[in-house]
Write a structure and sequence with these properties.
alpha/beta; 250 residues; 34% helix; 7 strands; seven-stranded mixed β-sheet; 7 helices
Length: 250
């Protein structure tokens, strides 16, 4: 019977579609990378998604985040994503968690209930904790390395973290994972050397913060505010979704 996943079924087969429908994937970070990953998972027929992010959509998100529209500014990212993907796939189950994932909030999540975990957050301590928890639970995990300050979407690679090069975030993660005794993690990373953002206070959030009221963690508290665009984070997110789909069905 023809349905919205028929074209996908032509490539993967009915058994794979049924497997995806029964799968539950947690996505930590619903920004430029995670938002596109969520979109692709929903359009592929994943039956249950857990969305974890405490951030709200800001005007500066419109240049790269799929859930960012003028009509969604001020909404929680997880709420905007939930509304969008339920319109794409009405039968999907979406669990939203307005939470800034860190080691001190990790106990709120049972990683054994997920079939796959996507790490698309920015903080090293949070990324490490996601990987540790997923490994302890025996749940597959894929982690996004740095996508900011880059212009070449063709420079992304899928590799084990210990086979990465160039990416500064991957270098830090390799060091921390080695200390933690973790020997392998699938990651998506870029071999493009990061660009140093233009130092222009006229267009900097440092001097002109426009975070929506009630934003828990304003970008002004960050050590560096990265430059970004529409075509690099999105590619990273879609690559991640593709890896998750392949791992779930094969």
């Amino acid at each position: 019977m023809l349905d919205q996943f028929s074209r996908t079924e032509l490539l993967l087969g009915n058994e794979a579609i049924e497997r995806l429908n029964k799968s539950r994937v947690a996505v930590f970070g619903i920004g430029g990378v995670g938002g596109y990953a969520v979109e692709a998972l929903a359009r592929s027929g994943v039956g249950t998604l857990d969305l974890i992010d405490d951030d709200k959509i800001c005007l500066t998100n419109l240049n790269r985040q799929i859930n960012a529209l003028h009509s969604t500014i001020g909404q929680y990212k997880v709420d905007a994503a939930k509304e969008r993907i339920e319109d794409i796939y009405p039968n999907i189950k979406v669990n939203t968690h307005k939470c800034f994932f860190m080691p001190d909030t990790a106990d709120d999540f049972d990683f054994t209930q997920y079939d796959y975990v996507i790490d698309a957050i920015d903080t090293v301590s949070g990324k490490l904790e996601i990987i540790k928890r997923a490994k302890a639970a025996g749940t597959p995990v894929i982690s996004a390395m740095g996508a900011g300050n880059k212009l070449d979407p063709t420079a992304f690679r899928v590799a084990d973290i210990f086979d990465t090069k160039v990416c500064p975030l991957a270098r830090v993660m390799r060091y921390e994972l080695k200390k933690a005794g973790i020997k392998d993690v699938k990651v998506v990373y870029s071999e493009e050397k990061p660009i140093r953002p233009i130092d222009d206070m006229e267009i900097s959030c440092r001097n002109h913060c426009i975070c929506p009221p009630g934003t828990a963690r304003k970008c002004t508290v960050r050590r560096d505010i990265p430059g970004s665009n529409a075509f690099v984070p999105s590619v990273a997110g879609l690559i991640i979704a593709g890896e998750v789909i392949k791992d779930l069905v094969y």
